[in-house]
Amino acid sequence: MSALFASVSPVSRRSMMTRAHRAVSRSNAVFALALAATLAVPLCARADAPAPGATAAPKSTTATAKASRPASAWRELDPASCRVLQDGELARLPEAWRRYAAVAKRCDLTVPNQPTRVSLVSVFTLDYYEGKPADAAWEDFPKPLILDQDFRCLGVLREIYPVEQPRELTLRHGQWRDGWPQEIRVRVSNPALGGDYDLPPLRWDAAQQSYRSKGADASKDLPCPKS
Hints:
By secondary structure, this protein is of the alpha+beta class. Helices cover 25% and strands 25% of the residues.
């Protein structure tokens, strides 16, 4: 082989060496590209993998929690859900309610998947004054009654729901047990100088079968009307 190479002219030898050098360069370039591609695959595959000794982040449980989350323990009464009392229902209330038959409404305190056991009956004062003169006197409306399904009085609110001018009431009920809200809370929006305030919470007293305030506030509870 060396003898054959020696017999070639110097010019030819230089041409052969140049072509050989280029071939080697091209071969090295191809090998380098192949090596880079081979290394890149496992590197990309490892990009999302946890570092050595670390554990993968757990999947979000937000969607699962939302799906399994029970109904809220507290529900706000929507005045729009209340309906005008039927004649038979109105007849079971004290005489003072007859005057307001057209605007006396029943609001059921309900929670999903449980029977309705408690309702609020109240005079909707804004409906009553609709169409009346702006200076019409405020009347001595009966206070809202908390009733069971037999219309037996369980308690009385101290202010008229949803509006006792100029105040507006928001009623929430919760801590449910067998269809009975164990507590009723009322927030009063008051534009007067004293500002907003809460009425004492009314809690279910199973022994007395009534909704009562606790402690010193109980002395201010309004009694159920006798007739």
